[in-house]
Write a structure and sequence with these properties.
By secondary structure, the chain is mainly alpha-helical. The protein has five helices and two strands, in the order αββαααα. The protein starts with a helix and ends in a 42-residue tail after the last helix.
Length: 159
């Protein structure tokens, strides 16, 4: 395994274990991705896989052509069917740690952009709610600890 592959694997483990993305730039930085953003990333991954599913299966004809040079048609169909099943099964098991850091970061940027341009719960566009003079607004000084489950695209619980 090359040094780049080792670094890539370490970055994937850091993200899977604790939600830290290690930026790929020269002066690497840690970026903590909150649970809600990880859930959004998981949804995005599922959308990407779903939208490309048919393209993955359609990419098999060159293989079928190679097989048909020496296999009978029924054997070719059987191999193609087995490979399609295997491919689709493998795609269901893809998790966020399998996605390139650069891609995750671009998806995060898109999520941030869409979240900042859409109203939050209880807000309407163009209207700001301010507390009355009798209300006291104080920041919560207690840190909020939130457990995060790592969602998978195949519906099984993460290990």
């Amino acid at each position: 395994m090359s040094d780049n592959e080792k670094l890539s694997r370490a970055c994937a483990i850091a993200f899977e274990a604790s939600g830290f993305l290690i930026t790929p730039e020269q002066g690497r930085h840690l970026l903590l991705v909150p649970c809600n953003k990880r859930e959004q990333l998981t949804s995005r991954l599922a959308e990407e896989l779903s939208s490309r599913r048919e393209a993955f299966v359609q990419a098999m004809p060159p293989l079928e052509s190679l097989l048909s040079e020496f296999l009978r048609p029924e054997a070719c169909r059987s191999v193609k069917s087995d490979l399609s099943s295997l491919l689709l099964s493998r795609l269901k098991g893809i998790r966020l740690l399998d996605v390139k850091t650069e891609v995750l970061m671009s998806w995060l940027a898109e999520i941030e952009t869409s979240n900042s341009s859409s109203p939050k719960d209880g807000e309407s566009m163009g209207e700001v709610t301010t507390p009355s003079r009798t209300e006291t607004v104080a920041p919560d000084t207690q840190p909020v600890m939130q457990s995060c489950t790592h969602a998978r695209t195949d519906g099984e619980a993460a290990r």
